[in-house]
Amino acid sequence: MSSQDLALIYHSLYNLDLPGHIFPAHKYSHLYNRLKRDPIFSKWDVLLPERAEEHDLELVHTKEYLNDLFSYEHTPRTMYSELPLSRSIVDSFCYGVGGTVLASKLTNKHKFAFNMGGGYHHSFPDRAEGFCYLNDIAIAIRKTKETSPNHKALIVDLDLHQGNGNSYIFQYDDKVFTFSMHQGNIYPKKENSNLDVHLEAGTKDDQYLTLLYDSLQQIQKQFQPEIVYYLAGADPYEDDSLGELKVSMKGLKERDRMIKKYCSEQSVPCVITLAGGYARDSKDTVEIHFNTLAAFGEI
Question: Histone deacetylase domain: from which residue to which, for each copy (predicted)?
Fold first, then answer.
């Protein structure tokens, strides 16, 4: 595959200053440095996103919530975040949104567009939740709908946790199909996706991949997307500190290849975002994310 097939997007401001926090706040720069050490991908261009404009954020989020967010105040709308609230952290999210919006635009000329950030799937229109202040994928979808209101999007969320924000936002939109496969007995409080697969603790590679394959086959019969948004969470990993799934690094590689194959066979472009990852050894999280990049950029 050439760099014309896969666009790469990154901004140094994706990184957060969170000393001692469970969120691996510098995984973005570590992934970028991992890419730059690779003999193939180091030669590829990496594109710089712009900061998302507030009018784009308002396509999903309420003005009241955004006013609180940009005041950097803990209020009933911002308090459910598990991150600090500061100008630098809000800036990071705005650039992460900009990266996913740019990735969505780039699918007009690339098969795949990889934002080395994003995947903030817990954010609701009127409040923050988890490690998410802004919902980048929902904003990117609504941005596309400004000019193509009937554009059909499939969200494939393979993070450890349910993509409850996206499920809620698009619950009445028949042009957006939400699919979330996640550990069923942990955070967050679940919303209703178009297709939810609740995994048991201890789920291993074979069962995980079989359920994913069967789910994609089911979706194919129900919905024909024009674009796929893939949240390639690293946290189903067997040594993740927040989860109890037992998917190996090899299994996660196969997962990524399966999503790429699905998109290729359907002839639809794909936007890839990182989403979560909290491996006990943070190098594992970075390697899992790099493997996702490599899967979509495989020659």
Answer: 21-282
